[in-house]
Amino acid sequence: MKHLLPALPFDTAALEPHIDARTLALHHGKHHAGYVAQLNALVEQYPELEGRSAAWLLLNPGKLAEEARVAVRNAAGGHVNHSLYWRAMSARGAREPSGRLADAIARNFGSFETFRTRFEEAAAAVLGSGWVWLARAQQNGGLLRIFTTSGHANPLLQGHFPILVNDLWEHAYYIKHENRRDEYLEGWWAVVDWDEAARRFESSDHTAVNRWATEGNMLLEVA
Ligand code: MN3
Hints:
It is a single chain. The chain is 46% helix and 10% strand. By secondary structure, it is mainly α. The chain has two domains: 67 residues, Fe,Mn superoxide dismutase (SOD) domain (Helix Hairpins), CATH 1.10.287.990; 106 residues, 3-Layer(bab) Sandwich (minor pseudopilin epsh fold), CATH 3.55.40.20. Strands 2-1-3 form a three-stranded antiparallel β-sheet, sandwiched between helices. A hairpin with a 6-residue loop joins strand 1 and strand 2. Bound molecules: manganese (III) ion (MN3). The site of manganese (III) ion has 7 residues, from helix 1.
């Protein structure tokens, strides 16, 4: 079994001007592809990883050889997080949440505008490489929460199901936006795929994290 780099769900120029084509091509074809290659190399090195989904590998470090854990977390996390990130964006579709997700955002944050502000503030406060997330608790009635994670960590590791994610590593924006992370963060709202976020919210019941941990998920292709 080999882990596969998923195709981008849009053309590399589709998210211009907010995310430029060169950044997307490098980000997907070099960075994400690199994490997939690292993961496949680890599977060759540690046969007990064979047949396990990237989500399972990320969520079950205790079942891995101790010397493999850090490398597996970085590679599997990079693969899972980028697969989610591509799906979080679209050139078309709703530019604001609707339906039950919109209701939940209003209930948890007061308003969509407040949510946006808090999401951007959380992202801006991340020092170095990391991610900003909207994720849903698997306990406590499924509250929505903004997370930031460093490296390739993911809120799944804390029992929260990811609804929306933005990549805060410099490779996600530096070619176009240089040091202006705030410009990237603000422009990113114009390419968020709220239809996908709504689908993820609908599938985020209290069993979702466990399902990912045991079955993996359809975003992560293997051959
Ligand atoms: Mn990245």
